[in-house]
Amino acid sequence: MTTPAPNWHERAATLRIDGRAVIEGQRRDAASGETFACLSPIDGRMLGNVARGAQADIDAAVASARAAFADGRWAGKPPAVRKKLLQRFADKILAARDELALLETLDMGKPIQYSLSVDVPSAARCIAWYAEAVDKVYDEIAPTGANALALITREPVGVVGAIVPWNYPMIMAAWKLGPALAAGNSVVLKPSEKSPLTALRLAELAVEAGIPPGVFNVVPGYGAEAGEALALHMDVDAVAFTGSTRTGRRMLEYASRSNLKRVYNELGGKSAFLVFPDFGDLRRAAVTVAGGMFFNQGESCNAPSRVLVHESIADEFVALVAAQAPKYPPADPLDASTVMGALVDDTQLNTVMGYIEAGRAEGARCITGGRQVRAETGGYYVEPTVFDGVSNGMKIAREEIFGPVLSVIRFETEAEAVQLANNSSYGLQASVWSDNIHRAHRVARALRAGTVHVNQYDEDDITVPFGGVKQSGNGRDKSLHAFDKYTELKTTWLRIDAERS
Predict the structure, then answer these.
(1) Nearest alpha carbon to residue 195 among 9, 30, 375, 50
(2) Three-state SS annotation for 376-419
(3) Cβ 349 vs Cβ 369: under 8 Å
(4) How many CB atoms lie within 10 A of CB 133?
(5) For the whole model, what pTM was predicted?
(6) Is residue 370 within a helix (H) or strand (E), and if so which, with residue range?
(7) How many CB atoms lie under 10 A from the CB of residue 210?
(8) Distance from CA of residue 204 to its chain's centroid?
(9) For the segment 108-145, what is each residue's pLDDT rounded down to a tens digit?
(10) How far is 179 from 65, CA to CA, in rounded Å?
């Protein structure tokens, strides 16, 4: 007997929203008593009031995290114990799959089918993977002379401040939490004020899983209040930030103004998608770039927003990409068949529409899309949009839009393609499409990006690092390399005296 599909609107109507912070394992109102309204981008509905965390709340959360670290209730546990509790945390996430998916969709507008199939299981898998890694990362013994023993050990940095964006709230939180907690740190998480709900629920699930109170705290609030207070805090040892390049600069400034804490920034992107005339399946490339660009409403830092295509195949390729756009109609995110949802809020809607108008004003040709739709719902929806005739100097080619807007730039030679791709302040991801293995390797090596895909885009796994170069940031999320951000290397030197008679 087939289980009937959930009615997500009915579930949304009865969902209980708790917007209070989680500090020392307990729900708390903001010290000031202030809240801010959490509105759904689906239709503008009021979801609930969320604690407006500020300096006093950050102080309390950091004090809780510091006490938890200092008394060893987490860092002092054997790796096998941390492993077991983190695995239980991952299981709790999966058990709460429907609730977390609904919160994610209501909060930031992504289709429920992707919250269910991508966001929740990806977050759980990340936590589980780092749980498994806890007892598989070994320390070192240096190759010294016979009269010394030099041990090189990894130790947790202490208190980690994690600040995550609104586009993938659960996944971005898990990318920070997994390695930070596995290494033995305590964490204070500041989610975006635009999508705080799943982070708050994750903190409760962590406590239910047996992770000691104080080890994982969540303070919602505005960036200029709670975020700045966390980044400036003198008792925070490292900040792991994902967000805009503009705010990433502030994170570095805050470190210099406070205790020179480590700052790891995962920032924006303007990823280049290079299509050469020797690639034989242009339709597959077109399907891939459309899927990569319009997934999550284009609200992805690694979206392939700059398509660089050889002049000889450009007309055909643009037509193939434009033919994909109608397959991504903006629709009700709570409908299980929807593939493109709502932009996160009216500010983002206005930003995206401003870039579309700038593209037209600078002479680019809008081949398809370019309009706001579903305005009568009270939500924030924009059609998938493709511009042709774009030059690399145009605003839509240089600045991160964070919406479903694709720019097509034509080139004539391989050298020009590489030059155009690298002529960006960003360097997060790129993709090369060529059936010539020599060209594929040559171009991939020449591209300045943290990840280069060949004849595919955004195929991914927790085992490989994610991050960029240039103004796309520093440090890496995911893989064993993420431990570098959350651990200190300590050398312990022991002198061995010669045997005495």
Answers:
(1) 50
(2) HHCCCEECCEEEECCCCCCHHHHCCCCCCEEEEEEECCHHHHHH
(3) no
(4) 22
(5) 0.96
(6) none
(7) 13
(8) 21
(9) 999 999 999 999 999 999 999 999 999 999 999 999 99
(10) 16
Q: Would residue 360 be called left, alpha or beta, if left means φ above 0 and alpha means ψ between -120 and 50 degrees?
A: alpha
> Tokens in use for 224?
């200029």
d(CA 260, CA 238): 9
Who contacts 154 (Cβ-Cβ below 8 Å, separation ≥6)?
137, 139, 183, 483, 487, 488, 489, 490
In the predicted structure, residue 499 carries a pLDDT above the cut 80: no
pLDDT tens digits, 326-360:
999 999 999 999 999 999 999 999 999 999 999 99
Tokens matching residue 127? 């936590």
Give the up-direction half-sphere exposure of residue 252: CA atoms within 13 A in the CB hemisphere: 12
Strand order in the sheet with 140-141: 140-141, 148-156, 487-495
Q: Which two tokens stand for residue 457?
A: 């885009």
Q: Alpha carbon of 140 to those of 146, 244, 343, 487: distances in Å?
A: 16, 37, 48, 14
57 near 23, Cβ under 8 Å? yes
Residue with tokens 């990569």: 292
Give me the active site residues, please. Answer: 266, 301
